[in-house]
Structure to design on (126 residues):
């Protein structure tokens, strides 16, 4: 069971991910397609990690692998299904892109770094 303090830190991670996602949606500058396509995936993966971590007190590595697996399963699913609405496009995506796996890895990396730097996990070396 996670402490209230730990849940609060994961809540902040989730809010940061939502803020990043909102910024991606309103961004209209150069490289918009890259920002929307990949930075949005980083934010989404951070949000999934935060949500999983709030309710599941498994080891960090296990939660990181689970987060990446969820994102990868949705990405592979895009080979089969196609979003037909804006809500579906924002939640499951609209087309398969192998580069999204890189974005998912970065998102998990950012989330794990957040967890380590906020004192939620034991140090790497004692």
């Amino acid at each position: 069971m996670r402490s209230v303090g730990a849940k609060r830190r994961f809540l902040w991670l989730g809010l940061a991910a939502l803020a990043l996602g909102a910024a991606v949606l309103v961004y209209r500058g150069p490289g918009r397609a890259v920002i929307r396509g990949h930075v949005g995936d980083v934010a989404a993966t951070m949000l999934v990690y935060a949500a999983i971590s709030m309710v599941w007190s498994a080891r960090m590595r296990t939660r990181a692998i689970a987060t990446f697996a969820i994102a990868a399963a949705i990405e592979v699913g895009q080979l089969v299904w196609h979003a037909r609405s804006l809500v579906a496009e924002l939640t499951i995506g609209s087309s398969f892109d192998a580069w999204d796996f890189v974005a998912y890895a970065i998102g998990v990396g950012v989330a794990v770094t957040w967890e380590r730097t906020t004192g939620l996990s034991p140090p790497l070396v004692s």
About this structure: The CA atoms of residues 2 and 55 lie 7 Å apart. The first helix runs from residue 4 to 26. The mean pLDDT is 88.
